[in-house]
Write a structure and sequence with these properties.
Order of helices and strands: HHHHHHHHHHH
Protein name: Hemerythrin-like domain-containing protein
Structural class: mainly alpha
């Protein structure tokens, strides 16, 4: 498994590029293999979110040296975003940083996510010029990760390796595996919410609602459309969407009164029945009808969407915002799905 903390990368101080290195041809994406354009879109969105996160993080730094270090990371992320934006013919232009993590932990997780993404793209890419770009950006991100790790050690005396377990499921085999991992995390969050009390229960419930929103939006955008295409007569996708609608309504009712532990348990039972149906009916259908390489690419796209929602979230719970961020990243992928 790729561990970005084991690679030094290109030092942040050496990441400034001469103009001719960034003068990429926008039209190259028109002749590239179909997944290339989607990868560029996904990474551009993630870099934009990273730059925004770094600007906000700099404002929270307790000392000038740390602030400057985080600002340099933000400038580097902005430069990578601008390079990716320039690939678009029309314009010339998922670890997750949880709300309960410290600023320094969020910074490390964010950089780990970007490193893993670039590494995945580098392995998948067939276009020579895009491979060079992914390699360059990977080296830049690796060095940014080490800077973030140094800040974590300085301010919290923690080893960044401890945070690798908090990464989104970037290394999962395919999309069903990623969604299964989501289901396990949501199940555990239900238990944490029920066990919490007072304000802690509201915080835990907000995280639960956010996780469900991200998970269900990924399924709505790319999973259920594929299911509908593979097996239209059985209307499995429509039944699952209806179940998700009823779960969302029940969850909203519980949020009005979090003292209703029985109501929370009832929603949990509804969700468990729903996820069992997905695991036994929908996911096997996807694996039988979609090539493994495509399911791996879809997992990468979904992970990018989750990472974007994590990095771009300004408050939790933020279910509508999370759904919108996920849809923005998945839109290019969704548009390429069979109808």
């Amino acid at each position: 498994m790729f561990n970005p903390l084991e690679h030094p990368g290109l030092p942040v101080g050496r990441q400034g590029r001469h103009w001719h290195e960034l003068d990429v041809e926008a039209t190259q994406l028109r002749s590239a293999e179909p997944g290339a354009s989607g990868r560029v879109d996904e990474m551009e969105a993630l870099q934009a979110a990273a730059a925004l996160f770094n600007r906000r993080a700099a404002l929270r730094c307790p000392d000038l040296e740390s602030q400057r270090a985080v600002q340099r990371l933000g400038l580097a992320a902005t430069a990578r975003h601008d390079t990716l934006a320039a690939l678009h013919p029309f314009a010339g232009a998922a670890l997750s940083p949880g709300g309960d993590q410290s600023l320094w932990a969020q910074l490390v997780v964010q950089e780990c996510a970007a490193c893993a993404m670039y590494h995945t793209f580098l392995e998948q890419e067939t276009d020579r010029r895009l491979r060079q770009l992914w390699e360059l950006h990977l080296q830049m991100e690796l060095a940014a990760l080490h800077t973030a790790g140094d800040l974590l050690r300085l301010h919290e005396d923690r080893d960044p390796q401890e945070l690798m377990a908090a990464m989104p499921a970037a290394g999962v085999a395919d999309l069903p595996a990623m969604l299964t991992e989501h289901q396990s995390r949501i199940d555990e969050q239900f238990d944490r919410t029920a066990a919490a009390a007072g304000e802690d229960r509201y915080t835990a419930f907000g995280e639960l609602a956010w996780m469900i929103a991200v998970h269900e939006t990924i399924e709505e955008e790319i999973v259920h459309p594929l299911t509908r295409h593979l097996d239209p007569p059985d209307h499995l996708a429509d039944h699952l969407l209806d179940e998700e609608r009823r779960i969302s309504e029940a969850l909203a009712d519980v949020s009005i009164s979090l003292g209703d532990v029985d109501g929370l348990a009832a929603v949990h039972a509804m969700l468990l029945a729903h996820t069992r149906r997905e695991s036994t009916e929908e996911f096997p259908l996807l694996r039988a009808g979609i090539p493994a390489a495509e399911l791996a690419d879809l997992a990468t796209a979904a992970w990018a969407a989750e990472s974007q929602a994590c990095a771009g979230a300004t408050a939790r719970p933020g279910m509508p915002q999370a759904s919108d961020l996920v849809r923005d990243v998945l839109r290019p992928t969704a548009q390429q799905l069979p109808v």
